[in-house]
Amino acid sequence: ASPSTPSSASKRKMDSLAEGRGKKGGAAARQADAGAAAGTPGGSSSRYDCSLGLLTKKFVGLVQQASNGILDLNAAAEQLGVQKRRIYDITNVLEGIGLIEKKSKNNIQWKGCGEGGDAESSEIERLQALLTDLDEESHRIDAHLAKLDGDLQRQQADSRFRECAFVTDEDIRGVSSFRNQTLIAIRAPSGTTLAVPYPEGDASQASRRKYQIFLKSNAGPVEIYLVS
Fold first, then answer.
1. What is the pLDDT of residues 14-39, one digit of tens each?
2. ∠ CA(219), CA(225), CA(228), 5° rounding?
3. Distance of CA 114 to the CA centre of its chain
4. Which among 181, 182, 188 is positioned nearest to 215, based on CA atoms?
5. If I label 151, which of 50, 84, 89, 176 is the partner at 20 to 30 A Cα–Cα?
6. pLDDT, position 140
7. Any idea of the CA torsion for 116, 119, 121, 127, to the nearest 10 degrees?
8. pTM of the predicted structure, to 2 decimals
9. Residue 112 gets which letter from DSSP?
10. Which residues make Cβ contacts (< 8 Å) with residue 63, sequence separation at least 6?
11. How confident is the model at residue 68, as a pLDDT?
């Protein structure tokens, strides 16, 4: 004869017994959980393996490995060895913060994958490579500037260089870009500030605008020479 189906009353009785056993074993279960967290022999590795945090990490790993980022929730529950309600706990949180979206009743998709995902990944890789190249170029420029600075300091320490470290009026006036221009030379202490405010007036008065130069020094006098 086929086994009979338990009646509702019998089922309620079994549930009550199970609940009672669960209450009695609650303290022992909590102690085992504490032991697992502390890494003691009393801890249960299976409880840690089923924790929501670890399951979420494993679930995200499955999503990222799935084709086009689309994952079947039934398959995920089977692979992780947990009930489907545990999977729903994870998907509700991930969907709430916008990391996944539902494609159908039992399928979700990672928003960073799927349509356009390959293009986005390629763009990220391109930008990362560009950033690496720019960083290397920056280091090369810094090294070159440091070399130039060292060369200049060595030259300045050479008395023969200091004797020749000057230009004449003829040298300056001989520069083609300075022709027909008002040119002044300024010798000022380190830390001197220079400001040239933009003159007021409309564009029609551009040729008649008067520029002013403001120099401020707190470390000594400022000398100005009219070259041309």
1. 454 345 444 444 444 444 344 434 44
2. 155
3. 23
4. 188
5. 176
6. 92
7. -140
8. 0.31
9. T
10. 69, 71, 100, 108, 110, 113
11. 79
How far does CA 39 lie from the centroid of its chain? 34
CA distance 22 to 59: 29
Residues whose CB falls within 8 Å of the CB of residue 211, separated by 6 or more in sequence, listed in order? 196, 199
- What are the tens digits of pLDDT across the range 136-186? 889 899 999 999 999 988 888 888 887 887 888 788 888 888 888 888 888
Question: From its phi and psi, is residue 191 left (phi > 0), alpha (psi between -120 and 50) or beta?
Answer: left
According to DSSP, the β-strands at 214-216 and 193-195 are: antiparallel
Please return the burial class of 48, using the count of CB atoms within 10 Å of its CB with bins 0-12, 13-18 and 19+.
middle
**pLDDT higher than 70, residue 99:** yes
The alpha-helical segments, DSSP class H, found in 50-107 are: 52-65, 73-80, 84-96
Whole-angstrom Cα Rg for the chain: 39
Other residues' Cβ atoms within 10 Å of the Cβ of residue 17: 10
Q: What angle do CA 150, 153, 155 make, to 5 degrees?
A: 110
Burial class (CB in 10 A: 0-12, 13-18, 19+), 58: middle
Task: Report the C-alpha gap between 201 and 204 in whole angstroms.
Answer: 8
Q: Specify the 3-state DSSP secondary structure of 123.
A: helix
Q: Which helix (H) or strand (E) holds 29?
A: helix 26-38
Q: In the numeric block, which tokens belong to residue 56?
A: 């979420």
